[in-house]
Structure formats: C-alpha cells, structure tokens
Fold these 4 entries.
Entry 1:
Amino acid sequence: MRRILFAVYALMSLLLFGCSNATTPAPLAPTALPGTTVPRPAANFKPDPSKTPVAILGLTIEPNGHETVLVSNISDQDQPIGLWSVFNQRTETHFDFPKDFVLKPQQTVRVHSGPGSVDNPPNDFLWSTERQWTEQQEDVILLNRQSRIVYWFVASN
C-alpha cells in the first residue's frame, strides 16, 4: 500500500508541477483506493532542457551484476545537484550526491553498484558494492534536496 501511495504522490507531482528542479508549493496529500493501478510515465521520454536540465539517461546491468545509472546535465548551465538522490522505488534505497556537487553543462556521471563498482568522483560515484537493482526494467527516480521528483526514468520493456 505504501508503494502505491508513493506512486500516486509521484505521478501527482509530475502532473501538477512538471519535471523541474524549481522550488514548488507542497503537493496535495496522495490518496488511492485499494487496488488502484497507477500509470507509469511514458518510456523513452525526451526531456526539454529548459524545463528539466538534469535527466537520468539509463540503467544498465551487466552479466556480472555490475549496475550503472547515468545522470546527465542536458542543459548549457551548471546544475547544483548536491544532496540530490538517485532513488529505487522498489527497495526504497537511495544514493545521495555529495553536498556541494555541481554537474557541469553536458556532463554525465555514473552511479555504480554491485560487483566491480568504482568510486572515482567527479565522474564515477559508488552507491554500494551490493546490487541495488534486480531487473533492467526498473524505474529510476531522481529527487532534489526537498525530495521532490526531478526526473523519473522509465525503463523500456
């Protein structure tokens, strides 16, 4: 039930406030009837850099279990993403970027987990040496400092 409520909250935030890192008013409290199915955002959505300057470009899981989430600044301006989180909704676990981290224009960073993970900032960050994702088709959510959804990556089926 908690995951359904989170999904409703996430969808309402996207619909009401869009995909932006701007500060927005507090969202409405999520409500859902038991058994409600919440639609996922469209797969392969191409973000508008003027509205969503930071995006998740993908999740890859290699045969050895090494996992990589790609986070990119698709704009032409610096994006301060310190304390933003890459969030796994299924497990409710997250990776937090360092407090003062700034993503440069067109820069892409990798967040690693699982066997063979590396930690080499500012381009490679270690989430965990344990696997965080179990399927290629898992959604990856990017949250800002206020835990508001900035980007919701929907894996292709």
Entry 2:
Amino acid sequence: MKRPRKIGMGTLFCCLMEREELEYRLPSDEGDPNIAGDAYRAPLGSRWDTPEFAAIFAATLRSMALLQSSRGFFKKPNVRAAFFNGIKLISQLKASHVEAFHAEIAAHASGNLTALMAQARDKGHVKVFHALKHMQMITSNVPLTDGHKMALRQSGHAMNLHRGPMSGFFATSFAETWSPILALLADGPGEPLGTRARGLRQDAPLMPVHREMHRISAQRPMLQAWHYLLHDAAMHSEILCVRNAHLGKYRYDFCHDLAKLPVPEDDVASTGEPGIYNFVSELLKAMEAQGRGYARGHGKTRRSSSRWVWISCAPCWIRRFLARKRMASSTSGAAEHALKA
C-alpha cells in the first residue's frame, strides 16, 4: 500500500503496540447480555501488546537487520572481493567439517563467538573460521548477538584510546516487579475528573500481590518498556545531567526544556549542570537481560577535566555573562593603561 510518508517497520510495530483501543457506545448496547454494564469498555492494553506479537516483531526486525548488513557488504567495493572469497569457502562447508571442529573444542573453552573463531583459526579449520567470521560481521548491528557485543566492546576500547580511561561506572537496576509506577501504568488513564485506586504521592500505595505484578509485566511487554525508558531517561537527564543520550533511536531528552534547546555545537554530553560524575563528556552503556525478564544496563562515563569544556557546554545565559565579564575586564584594563600613559 502506497503511503504519503514512508515509515520504518520498527516505527510501525511500536505504534501498533502503543495504540489505544477506541471506546464508543451505541443505543443498542443497553440490554445486550454480551456487554457488561450496558456500556462497552475498551481494553486498557493494545491487542498487539502481547508477548507473542513482541516476539514476532523482534524476529522480523532482526531478520531485516541481517539482510541490510549482508546488502551493505555487497554494495561496498572495498570489501566486496574479500566478502566473495569468504562466501566461496562457506559454500564448500559441510557438516563433517563442523563435527570435526566440534570434536577438537576444549572442554572448558569459552562459548562466545570470538573464542570459537580463534580456536578454528589456530586448529586449521579455515572454512569453519570464515563461517563464524561472516556471522559475526553481519550481526554487528543486531542487538543481543555476539557480533553486537563485539561492536560495543570495540566502541568502548576506542573511547578509552580517544578520551582516556573512564571516570565512573554505573549499573541501573530498577524495581520492575514491585513498582507503583508499573501498577499505575497497568491501571490505564482512568475516568476524567475521577479518582484513582492508587497514587504516586501516597507513602504506601495500594499494590497487587507479587504474583499479580509478575503476571502484569509478563503479559504487557510495552509496560516494561515504558517503565524502563521513564526511569532510565530520568537517570540520564536528572542524575547524570546528560543530554542527547539515545537508546537505539529513542532520545532521552524527554524534558521539554531540554528538547527546545538547539543542538549543541560541541561534542560534550553534559547539560551544563554538575551530575554525580561532574560534567560528563561522553558515556556508553551496554544492555543485558535479567533472569526475571527485565532489562539492565552497565554504563561507563568520562567527565571533563577542563573548565573550558564546561564553559562550552554551559547554557547560553552563562556564556553571555562570562563574555560580558571578560569584555568589562578588558575595557577597564585598557582604560587604566591609557591613564598611566
């Protein structure tokens, strides 16, 4: 179907899982035994907000990312010849070659893809080595794969070489299965000008039992996503004092004051306010899955050691104040020099 504006599959899947069901009422609803309360009530969650649809959407996006990576190797002239040579060797790979390599793997060897590639190269299994190498290359931009882990590791190493060692390390572990915010999101918007069963300003808000919270978070994947993005965005903008932070394509400048500011001209990540790591110049965080079906991030930051870097990322009114101060001091110094002359 032709659309007036092209959208990506990820945006389409996100809109389907976030959409709200329409609620309407008809005169024929009264007295209908299939409608409770003689009034139709729309479900609180989207019909696509289920674990099954989330798995289908994730598998589709992963397959598209793999195809895009393979297409990129075909289109680049500088890597096309090496890629074709590897494909020729992979086409000659047989099950017996894989079985022979599997028999020579050490008993206590690491199971990651990089370690298996090193063993295949050292033991002379050239075809298996090229198969593993191509698998690692085409999965470098696919999350939750060994290729993506390698890309993150190389980015962190390049960050250390370019800027120096990290200044701080943090791991964000939010209360996912016993959170009043998650329960409030599960309640839905509620009635206009009505009362709510629980409020965030209460000291001890009314909470479901722990098993029910597990069921809610398992049945509604978008609730987990909203809960994590809300907390992680607050962590970056309010505690780390960082702007222009992204998780994939999602920007963490959810505050309207930060979103209205122009894009900074320098490469400093700080908002101009000191956070727990002072003025952050850059950060990198890798995500992982927890055993309870939730996400967790391990990040490292590097703070700026120069006050001139802080001045470059300070708000505009601070820069104007410092400029006026320098201008006043230079003017008074010139006047004193003229009087002495």
Entry 3:
Amino acid sequence: MSVFGAYSRYYNLLYKDKDYSKEAEHVHGLITKYRPHAKSILDLGCGDGALTEKIAASGAWVVGADLSRDLVTATHARGLPAVIADGRALCRAIRARGKVDPIFLEDVNTLPQALTDVLRGNDVLLTMGAGSIGGVSASLPRMLSKGSNE
C-alpha cells in the first residue's frame, strides 16, 4: 500500500473539524475578485471531494485530482469528476497544452524570487492547504515583503 493509500484511511479523521463551506466561500471570493470570468477550477489534492463539491455548488466546473485512489473514488461517489494524478505529472500535461509553465522549488526560500520572475499583471496565486504548503501560505506575505521596498 502506498503512503497515500494509508493516508486515505485517516483523511476524514484529520479533517473532521474543517469548515469546507467557509473555505469554499473564501475560494469563491478570491476567484470572483481576481478572475471573475473563470468557469473551471482544478482542485489539486482534492481529498474526498468535500471542498470540491462545495466549490462546484457555486456554479464553477471543478475537477479534482489526488494521488489516493480511495480519495478519488470518494470524490466520484459525490458525483464529481476526479483523476488519480500527482502535481508534477498534471503540471507537465497542462504545460504540454501550452497553458502554464510549472515551477518546482527544492528550497522554499527561493519562492519569492521565483514568483517575481513568473507572475504577471493579472496573475492569481492561490495557495491553501495543510502541511508544508500551509506553512508556505502563511509565511508568503512576510517572505515577499523582505526583498521589497514597498
């Protein structure tokens, strides 16, 4: 069993107190503010589809992606499209279609410069999550202001 197979057994226990409705409202607000005409969303790391389902209820077309077969199956059980995929493979597929150039960093301290190099005027960077990505999300404003004169 892969680590993601084992993880799926504990997923609901780990996220039992998560307010998916509140998080979906937050995501919807960000999309409305920064990309009001966006109609499709990729929920990378969709888990069991609870958040995916709430976002879809706002009228957006949402597809989930997760490494865990069990969690993708749970997302399907909600009547939502989802695929078994890891972020790197998915980004390579999107890049092949000419949509994005994924960037993977080995050192989180290089993130501010990487963002400065790639983000343009109307680009939106939305980071949410637990674990290491949650820590990055929380520290990103501080990291970006370090090198700024603003």
Entry 4:
Amino acid sequence: MDSVDIYAGIIVTMLDIIGFAIGDVRIAVITDNILLLHIMFQLMMNKERGKEVFSAFFIFATMRFFNRHFFIGMISGIILSIAVFLIWGHFFFLAMPENPEQMESSLFPPQFPDSSKLSIQGKADDTWSFKTLDGKETRLSEFRNKVLFINFWATWCIPCLAEMKSLQNLYDSFKIENVQFLMVSNEDEKTVREFLEKKQFTFPVYLAKDALPQIFKSEGIPATFILNRDGAVIFKHIGAAKWDEKSCVDFIHKLL
C-alpha cells in the first residue's frame, strides 16, 4: 500500500507540472481521475475505509488518503519533473541551429490554400500606425487597394534572420507591382538600421509604434500575414519559411 501511495503521488505531480507547463487543462482532468482511482483502490484494499465509500467529500476534506507516503511521492514527482525538463532542454538547445545560415538550408515554403477556397481570417484595423526608420508616422490605411505582405521580426530572432534572404528575393520580384511589403520590428531605430546596413536588405522596414491589432497578435515570431486588396487577412504563417518559391509568388499574383 505504501508503494502505491508513492507511485500515485509521483504520477499526479508530474502530470500536473507537465499540464501547467504546456497549458493543457485536459491533463488536470486526467490527474483528478488518477486521484479518484487511487482512493477507490485504497477503499477496496482497506475494509475499514470501505465503510466510508459514500462519504467521499469527507475523505477529501480530512485528506485521509493523502498520507505521508503520498506526499513522498509528490516530492519525488517534482524532482523527476525537474530532471525531465532539464534533460529535454539540454537536447532541445543542442538541436537548435547556431546561426541563421544553418537554419536557412532547411526551410520549406508555406502551404498555401487553393485561391478558389480562401477564407477570411479577419480584417485589419486600418487606423493602426507605425513608423518608418526616419520617424515618419504611417497608417495601414495608406496602403488601401494594395495586397499587403506583413512580416513581424527582430534582429535577435534566428528563425527571422534565416528567412530574410528569401523575403528579399520575394520583395524584388514584386517591386513594380501593386504589392506593399511591411517588415515590422518593435526594436529601436538604431538597432534595426545598423542591421539593415550590415546585411544590405532593401525591403521596407517599419517600427511598431502602437499596440498590435488583435488580428496580428501571435505566439511567436517570425509571423507573416498576407492581406488582400480589401484589407482582409487571407493567409497567416507563424515561423520561418522559404518565401521566394514559385508557390508563394503565384499565390500573391492571384490576389492582384
């Protein structure tokens, strides 16, 4: 019985920690079920406690089944969870590319939807304002009736840097067409300008001035949004990609 208490404590604690780490409430439901099974097992194995089957609330209230062995299991679960996360973190960071060039060679173009089956994901707030590197305030409304290619990035973001060359190539292929590129960073002007001068990228870069419209908020960067000429978001991609492939060029051409 003591070993069962310890194992139950380990399992419940590790599942709770994992659920909290990944933000999945379904794991909490699993832990609740494990706790109930643990209590039912103890009731079946202990005749004296079997009399209290119908007073489960009292059992929980008095913490009768959460004895010292269960708490030993909980502590062990915490230690094991820390060990698992440390090991996972070690291999995760080892697997990460050390520089953009390493990552660039492994990029693939995004999966674009069929142009005849496009769904509108929302409409951008055209009052949203941002600044040019020269400090001029610009609003999204200034680019009405244009297809917009909006990319949120940062100079410290390796995946962002890995896709930069393909973004430059994509920009070059649409220079004389009715497509507006907005490469938006929330860093300071000096940092961004020095980066662009060093890398010699020529696509239009802007600095975030106000809070992002809800439609452009994402869990990470790079984050790319393509808007049709009506200002509706019809494509969204989170993460680095190879943007100069024919599939991307054709997709944008069909929006013009």
